[in-house]
Amino acid sequence: MDEKQATVSDRHVDERILKHSHDADEALQAIQQIDGQVIEIDAETNKRLLRIIDWHLMPLMCVVYGMNYLDKTTISYASIMGMQKDLRLKGNDYQWLGSMFYFGYLGWEYPASQLLQRMPLGKYSAICVVLWGMVLACFAAVSNFGGAVTIRLFLGICEASVTPGFALLTSQWYTRKEQGQRTGLWFSFNGFGQIVGGLVAYGIAKGTDKYGSSIAPWKIVFLATGLFTIVIGLAFLWVVPDNQLNARWLSEEDRVLAVERVRINQQGIGNKHFKMYQFKEAMMDPMTWAFAFYALVADIPNGGLTNFFSQLIENFGYTAEQSLLYGCPGGAVEVIALISSGFLGDWLGRRLLCSMGGLVSAMVGMILIIALPLSNNDGRLIGYYMTQASPTPFVALLSMISSNVAGYTKKTTVAAIYLISYCVGNIIGPQTFRPKDKPRYVPAEITIVVCYGVCLIDIAFIWWWYSKENKKKAMIRASEGYAKMENQEWLDLTDGENAEFVYTL
């Protein structure tokens, strides 16, 4: 938030705007209760509030998102720990296990977006975390392909609410200037999940090899990650509130201040009523489909690499146990890329342009994997590590759904379409890694390079469009007779109908 005082004196809402928006944001109720008072948020108060919010939300969001990645990719570690033999997988069975998660995710994504709007945000998100932990732990009990497919389907259903829920939480609690860094931070724990997952799987593999085990090592991996996820979900339920107004770790005064500090977002903190005009605006907005196109194309590579990275590294000439360990640095690359991209994007005010560096790195890395000879194991492994910087634009666009899409129904709709496209890309991705193409998987690798190139063009288009729209809004604000309505920040207006709304680039 800008370091200035936020003054609240006249709390009368313009009836015309209120009628047009159908009903106002939940934040307006809190603001109206202090009618006639002056709210002062100086720089020190703002820093204090931000520190409290960060310490209560960020650690849990980061750990949960790390488990979100680890839990859905545990199958990659299990695939080289005996799972394929024990479940008698053959042909394309493993590819379908990779895709089935995203069929569940795809089928439940839009219902999840509606539930996230209508249900208490913190409680619903926490329940989903607990349920996905329970489902994952049940994977240890499967004994055939049918059981594994069922578990993967329900795992996708349970995890469908996590990313859109976290995008809503970020837009609810943080100013637009803060959102890029926070989104990059919690999403970067995908990389930490990969590091921890590799180390845990390696430790279990070595331990059971040395001391033996009454159950298969790959089953222990599923039990350990599933049970830990349940514990984290219960902690999330206790700590993370539905919004600022029922945060038990904020005083009554600080709750109102926490709402007031995000006034600058022009978005409010939540509205539980579905608004058809906002849904229609989302469907007609070119940026909705530019976002969706990016998610579809970018996640074809993601779907292949997340499910096959352990096998890919093994095909570089390393042993199965080595591939578990050598996947860990890839997670570190992702963490560094996402955190640095988020920081630089917010600091320079060029979130999209800064994110493109990770995609260029990934493209170069995949070209190395294709071009280098099979004998150059180390060079191809470095190429794989470079591909792990690829999520930077995906996260930048995800943070833009938080900061650039206003109107609660519109925001949840755009997020749902974005993540539905993400699912479709991830369903397609594993199918490009065909068994007959081993050990090089050249057709899949060429597909990945082409996808990265197309994505760069799409990002450039999004940047151009938002720049053009900001100029239009500036002309409206500068026109004769224009007047900003009182408290319009809390009226649940969309970014399209609010001339005060400035898009983050």
From TrEMBL:
Residues 57-505 form the Major facilitator superfamily (MFS) profile domain. InterPro entries: MFS, MFS_dom, MFS_trans_sf. Signal peptide: none annotated. Keywords: Membrane, Transmembrane, Transmembrane helix, Transport. It is found in: Membrane. GO terms for cellular component: membrane. It comes from the Eukaryota. GO terms for molecular function: transmembrane transporter activity. The chain crosses the membrane at residues 124-145, 151-171, 183-204, 216-240, 286-304, 324-345, 352-375, 381-401, 413-429, 441-466. Pfam families: MFS_1. CDD domains: MFS_FEN2_like. It is a multi-pass membrane protein. Belongs to the major facilitator superfamily. Allantoate permease family. PANTHER family: ALLANTOATE PERMEASE (PTHR43791:SF1), PERMEASE-RELATED (PTHR43791). This is MFS allantoate transporter, putative. It comes from Talaromyces stipitatus (strain ATCC 10500 / CBS 375.48 / QM 6759 / NRRL 1006).
